[in-house]
Amino acid sequence: MQDDRKTLDDRNKMTDLERLRHSCAHVMATAILRLWPDAQFAAGPPVENGFYYDVDLKHRISPEDFPAIEAEMKKEIKANRPFERVVVTREQAIKDSESGRLGGLSERPGNPSKFKLGNLAEIPDGEPISYYKSGDFIDLCAGPHVMRTGNIGAFKLTSVASAYYKGDEKNPQLQRIYGTAFKNKTELEAYFKMVDEAKRRDHRKIGAEMGLYTIDAELTGPGLPLWLPKGGAICEELEKLAKETEFLAGYVRVKTPHIAKEKMYLTSGHLPLLYKDSMFPPMSLLEEQDRARNEQLTRRKFAVLDELVRLKNEAAANPEQIKALERESFEIALQQDALGERYYLKAMNCPHHHRIFAAEPRSYRDLPLRLAEYGTCYRYEQSGELFGLMRVRSLNMNDAHIYCTPEQFAQEFNAVNEMYLKYFKIFGLGKYVMRFSTHDPSRLTGENAKFVNEPDLWKKTEDLVRDVLKNSGIDFVEVPNEAAFYGPKIDVQVWSVIGREFTLATNQVDFAQPRRMGLVYRDKDNTEKTPLCIHRAPLGTHERFIGFLIEHYAGNFPLWLAPEQVRVLTIGEDEPLVTYGKAIVQELRANMVRAEGDYSNDKINGKIQQAEQARVHTMLVVGPRDLAANAVSVRVHGKGSLGARPKAEVVADILAAIRERRA
Ligand SMILES: [Zn+2]
Ligand SMILES: [Zn+2]
Questions:
Q1: Ligand nearest 44 Cα, by number?
Q2: How far is the CA of 371 from the centre of ligand 2 (A)?
Q3: Which residues surround the ion ligand 2 when the cut-off is CB under 5 Å?
Q4: Which CATH superfamily is domain 233-273+345-553 in?
């Protein structure tokens, strides 16, 4: 069962826009009741990008009903009714539910507010029970709301779906009506324009058009993208960028296997519980030395079973003897289970890197040690959650772990942030925010424990991180209670060029795993100390980052990232022209430029159109006049013809644009 009941604390944190949207849900319910007075309402919270209200109604509401509902809503908004809060006793609320008054415009004899009764039962004793009344509509609701219906500047109903009451399929199925609302019409229109644009830029659609990746659910498996050569080229460019940047910043590169023993994850703390649901199930491996013992146990197991069957068929069987055999059979199963080793596909690279740290004695002189790897991880995501490149089961991660002393921490952490900013600039990301998630001191121990029980270390590292963020002038917000279990974390949210928000990367401080994994360095005073560890992945995973970039660029990648950077197009297929064209392609390829040639006899306009459709970045058209002048006619995707220029100059320009990763 899904528990989406908001606590009072959650409610206090609702943003202005969320209040407005939730208020709009009340107005929508009012409108639906004007049209269908016997409608029964369940829950109507604000959600990302809008709101919904679940309704039980014989009539199937369809988008064709939206204009009528919206017309009633407009009347309510125009009437500018106040939202009035009334606190009542539980007895009163039960009475009003039974009379059908709650979630209604009036009492409805014989039609009690059944879902409101259910919601009421979930309100803990001691929490106030309140109504919100706007006009004739009274709802059981803890708020908060806007002052008046007239504060809802602009709204639109968007879709209808079905949902079970409280998310439990044993409960009745309801109709979920979605809508969205904004402070004013301009914002509403901008939102729908963005939604349309996002559809046009959908990474799954453009990814298929450009031949970047494929997902072969049938044989390879769902959520396991295969990068086609053109997508592979983008992966390579991103890795190259990361390698160069990290090399300059003093990182060293390592390589680690894709599997590890269960023991490692038990030591790191990811298993037995914390990460179990995100990992693929383990594989068991019996080494040679265990096989003989395993066979012996299997033989004994069958002998015991035979004996049990025989005894049970005997009239005068001894119950003690049967019990003893059953116990033995159980013990054999346990012994077999303990034989051999369980291995897991890695869901994260950290423990492997920690083992590399531990592979040699480390002194304070070796720190900071920055281990980097484009590591492939495997995470189990429910099949219903998989989505193109955005939610996958195999991920190529721009990972690194920085081991440092507490004194080095601020500088290292700052350098990581600088790296993020450098990347944002390269990709033209002007709007971003860092969400700094901290721990909740009340959840260090006990049943609800969510964070490692190291109160001093939490305070120290959170203070350090907060200081670095404040001093760097980076935009950040602090979010309590959302840290990782081993330390505070920073999620980086960026906005694509069309204004859609993505969570791209994380940056985490870890003071727990190094200790659990027994990592130490010898300090100046010759004592052993535990290093701090920074986990960071500014470019996230190839999957998610490229999914994001496809939308951000609408598939029109800058030259350095374009899968096909240059195509040489000859006007006709005359031998000298083709030779000239091929030489240009060879010269570019010798400089690692992804260049192709189209030397066919097709009409040049058709050839250009094909190249444009394939989103080739730069087209070099060569005809007899270009050949004679040792020139090329340049055309850039989306920009049209830029005229003829000397070939050497154009090649030099292309190489410089790629080297500088020009936008
Ligand atoms: Zn409400
Ligand atoms: Zn890590």
A1: 1
A2: 11
A3: 350, 535
A4: Bira Bifunctional Protein; Domain 2 (3.30.930.10)
